[in-house]
Each structure stands twice: as structure tokens, then as C-alpha cells.
From TrEMBL:
The entry's keywords: ATP-binding, Membrane, Nucleotide-binding, Transmembrane, Transmembrane helix
Protein name stated in the entry: S-DNA-T family DNA segregation ATPase FtsK/SpoIIIE
Organism annotation: Actinomadura namibiensis
Record domain FtsK: where: 184-371
Stretches with biased composition (Polar residues): 435-444
Length: 450
């Protein structure tokens, strides 16, 4: 009886010890206890899981089998079924799961490399990922790394986008790191690779936060920032010290767009005279300063109160489209934010959208907005966009021009942080009149903000 109590006491002690370990030092508990237990489970159940997910292949293998032979003679004549079993070596079909590598722990789960069976493609694993996640009792399983003949599966115990900690600033020109991708990698926006971005989402979904992150990251760089803020300037005015120009009314927008188009034509002429295809091929001392144009709530640019504004809106749309078309080669980049950017806004909008090859779709209220933003992407991307919950602002679907998409989240950048960055780097702000040449005017309303 005493032994039993000692045993029971030891068990309770162990359970309390493990609970306390997990409670007070979750990281070491994960690597020391939980991860090895998970690995054992994954290995022990892998053949069943792979079979259930349709990832096994049938292979012919030599096996001993038991064969029944009818026995001839008096017993057979009596019509009684008399059989004799005989062991025989023969080839039989055996289900074979893909070979699982050694799982390696990560902070949120583990990564494991798999060898593809003959005839399999990484897409087979992408399709099975949700089923594997349920079988492994984890938040999600993603195919993260594909090499010929192998894939790496990344299992995460909880959503890696719950907490995002990165610094948006990078060392490289026109490169910003606004957040994290779901696969754990940094989310990088490189304007030299994808020149223009569309940033869409419902109200309070995190569009302005992403703009803040971009401003904070670009503020220390030798670039000119330009703001269009038709919400009366409430969004971008605090960043005025780092903005070379800021337009807050429709007239100012028109004038600023005209300046931009004229500047693009200047740059085009300069490239032509030096036989360069784009500004990056010009000698370094002649290369113009890159311009990043941020537009908050683009729909305001296209809205008309009455018919008299029709021409004005059409001219604005055309100028914006020209900036988008020419900007790619001449280092003028657009970040266009809006709740929905559809053809209902006006005739030029669809053409403008086609020029914005980088897409960021935050939480949306209706499926059409997701369709509009992400275009005809993989339906899974649209489903993922529609599934973004309201309580995680900043979570979005990011699509580059190569057709791949990721779930991502921007790092939280408060207005104060972006404002401080703008103020601290105010001395780097190129003067709009110097930048665009003395022959140009910034228009009566465009505040040269520096
Ligand atoms: N990545 C993020 N992490 C944490 N909180 C965030 C993040 N992005 C946004 N938020 C929070 O969500 C709120 C709304 O974000 P934001 O102002 O960027 O939305 P919005 O899409 O610009 O909305 P609106 O259309 O009304 O301008 C902000 O107050 C901010 O605190
Ligand atoms: Mg906003």
C-alpha cells in the first residue's frame, strides 16, 4: 500500500513539475519535452496520415504470404472443404509513405523535409496541407521550401502572425520590410522589383499602418516622398517634414500630378540623350532621386459631386495612369491605398489597377473587393483574404507579380513613430522645386512641405 502511495505521489510530483516547467519556461519545455513527444507522434502515425491524405504509393515488395491449397484425395471427394495453408514468398503491393526526414524544431513548431515519391509534385502536398495539419493537431502546415525531388513542410502550433516584430528599415535603396510572412520570412517590398503597389482593405483593416511602415522605412533613404491625401490631409500632414510635396485638395492633386508627369518626361528625355533604357542605367552622378508617391483613399480622386467635375476627374485619372505607366522605368513609384478600387469609380481605374503589380489585400467586407484586388489568383488566396478576422488588423494577403501569394502581417507602426521618423530625417527631404526643375511649378496649392 505504501508503495502505491509513493508511486502516486511521484506521478503527481512529475505532473506538477512538468506543468510548472511549461508555465514558467515554455521555450525550454518545448525543446526538451513537447517537441520530442510531437516527433515521436509524427513518426509513429506518418504511414496512416500519408495514406489518409492520399500521399502513399503502391510498391511491389517480396513478402511471405499464406496460400490456401485445396487438398485432393478422399477429403475432397467428401465435399468437405479441406484446405491446407502453405507459406510462399511472392511479390505483393504494399502502400509506401514518402520518406520523412528529421524534424527540426522552430520556435513555433517544426520543419521536416520529405522526399517526393515518383509522380508527385509539391502541389500534392499543398492540397493535403490542411488534412496533415488536422492529423498533427497543429495550427497550420505549409509547403515552404521546394527543391527538385524534395519539399519541406512547416508545421506551426499557433498563428505566427499573432505577434510581429521586425524593423521596417533596410540598408538597401527602395527596399522596405513592412512585416512578416506566414512562413516566418520577412515580408520585403522592393520597389525596384515590383514598382507599384495596390493596398486595399475595409476600414480599420490596417492600410494606413502599412503606409506608416513604408514611410518610416523610406524616411532615412535618399528618396523623395510625395503624399496625396484627400481625407483633408489628416493622414499625411503629420509626416509633412519628410514629404517633398503634399496635396490635400483635388486642385492640388491635379497640379501635383502634372508636375509628376512633367518630371517623368524630363527623366525620359535625359535617359534618351544618354542612350539609357531606364534611370538605373544612367551614370550614378546623373541618376535622379527616386520618388515614392503615397495615395490615401484613391476613390476620392475619382469621385464627382456633379457633371461639371467630369473632365477634371478624367484628366486626373489619365495623369495617374501615365505616372504608373512611365514610373517603372524612371524611378517614380506608386503606393495606392483604398477601400475598393473597381471599375465603378471611373473608366481609367481598371487600367490603373493593371499597372499596380504588387497587391496587398487586407480584410475585406465583400468577396468582389478581394477578387478585384487579387485578380484571378489561386482561389485559395481569395478564401484566405475573406477569412481574415477583424480582430487582427494588419493581416493581409500579399501577391507579387510572379503569381505566388502569402499571408502576411505588417508590423505595428504608430503614427507617432512614423512622425518621429519623418521629423528626424527632415533634412533628407529633397525640395520639390529643385527636384522637378525650376521650369516647373508645384501648383498653387501643393505645399512644398519641407
Ligand atoms: N499590423 C498591425 N498590428 C497591430 N495593430 C494594427 C496593425 N495595423 C493596424 N493596426 C491597428 O488597427 C487600427 C486601424 O488601422 P489603420 O488605421 O491602418 O486602418 P485603415 O485600413 O487605414 O482604416 P481607414 O480605412 O479607416 O483609414 C489602428 O488603430 C491600429 O492600431
Ligand atoms: Mg487609413
Amino acid at each position: 500500500m505504501t508503495d502505491f502511495y509513493v508511486f502516486l505521489g511521484a506521478l503527481v510530483g512529475l505532473a506538477v513539475g512538468l506543468w510548472a516547467w511549461r508555465r514558467w519556461h515554455p521555450d525550454s519545455f518545448w525543446y526538451g519535452v513537447a517537441f520530442p513527444a510531437r516527433v515521436a507522434l509524427v513518426y509513429l502515425t506518418w504511414s496512416h496520415v500519408a495514406s489518409g491524405c492520399g500521399l502513399t504509393r503502391t510498391r511491389q515488395r517480396w513478402r511471405y504470404t499464406l496460400d490456401a491449397l485445396p487438398v485432393v484425395g478422399p477429403a475432397a471427394r467428401n465435399a468437405a472443404t479441406v484446405v491446407q495453408y502453405k507459406r510462399q514468398l511472392r511479390r505483393v503491393g504494399v502502400e509506401k509513405a514518402p520518406r520523412l526526414g528529421l524534424p527540426r524544431p522552430t520556435r513555433l513548431g517544426w520543419r521536416v523535409r520529405l522526399r517526393l515519391s515518383g509522380g508527385q509534385a509539391p502541389a500534392d502536398y499543398e492540397k493535403a496541407a490542411e488534412r496533415i495539419a488536422h492529423a498533427w493537431r497543429v495550427h497550420s502546415v505549409r509547403v515552404v521550401d521546394v527543391t527538385p525531388g524534395h519539399v519541406t513542410l512547416w508545421a506551426t502550433m499557433r498563428d505566427p502572425l499573432t505577434v510581429v516584430e521586425v524593423t521596417p528599415e533596410t540598408e538597401e535603396l527602395l527596399k522596405v520590410r513592412p512585416g512578416k510572412l506566414e512562413n516566418g520570412q520577412d515580408w520585403i517590398i522592393d520597389f525596384r522589383v515590383v514598382p507599384h503597389w495596390l493596398n486595399a482593405g475595409a476600414t480599420q483593416s490596417g492600410k494606413s499602418n502599412l503606409a506608416n511602415a513604408i514611410i518610416k522605412a523610406l524616411a532615412p533613404q535618399p528618396v523623395a516622398l510625395v503624399g496625396f491625401d484627400l481625407k483633408g490631409g489628416v493622414e499625411f500632414t503629420p509626416y509633412a517634414p519628410r514629404l517633398s510635396a503634399l496635396a490635400t485638395t483635388r486642385t492640388q492633386c491635379r497640379a501635383l500630378l502634372d508636375d509628376l508627369v512633367a518630371e517623368l518626361e524630363d527623366r525620359m528625355e535625359q535617359c534618351r540623350s544618354h542612350g539609357a533604357r531606364n534611370v538605373w542605367r544612367l551614370p550614378e552622378e546623373l541618376r535622379p532621386v527616386p520618388i515614392v508617391v503615397l495615395i490615401d483613399e484613391v476613390a476620392e480622386l475619382f469621385l464627382m459631386a456633379d457633371k461639371s467635375e467630369k473632365d477634371e476627374v478624367a484628366r486626373t485619372g489619365t495623369a495617374l495612369l501615365r505616372v504608373a505607366q512611365l514610373g517603372r522605368a524612371f524611378a517614380v513609384h506608386l503606393v495606392v491605398c483604398g477601400q475598393r478600387i473597381g471599375s465603378d469609380l471611373g473608366p481609367g481605374v481598371t487600367a490603373l489597377r493593371a499597372q499596380l503589380s504588387g497587391r496587398v489585400c487586407h480584410r475585406v467586407n465583400d468577396p468582389e473587393t478581394a477578387n478585384m484586388t487579387l485578380g484571378d489568383m489561386d482561389p485559395a488566396a481569395l478564401d484566405a483574404a475573406r477569412a481574415i478576422p477583424a480582430e487582427t488588423p494588419g493581416v493581409c494577403i500579399v501577391a507579387g507579380q510572379d503569381g505566388s501569394w502569402h499571408r502576411a502581417r505588417s508590423v505595428y507602426v504608430s503614427e507617432e513613430a512614423a512622425e518621429t521618423a519623418a521629423r528626424d530625417h527632415a533634412h533628407l527631404t529633397p525640395d520639390w522645386n529643385d527636384l522637378t526643375g525650376s521650369s516647373l511649378t508645384t501648383g498653387p496649392g501643393c505645399s512644398a512641405a519641407a
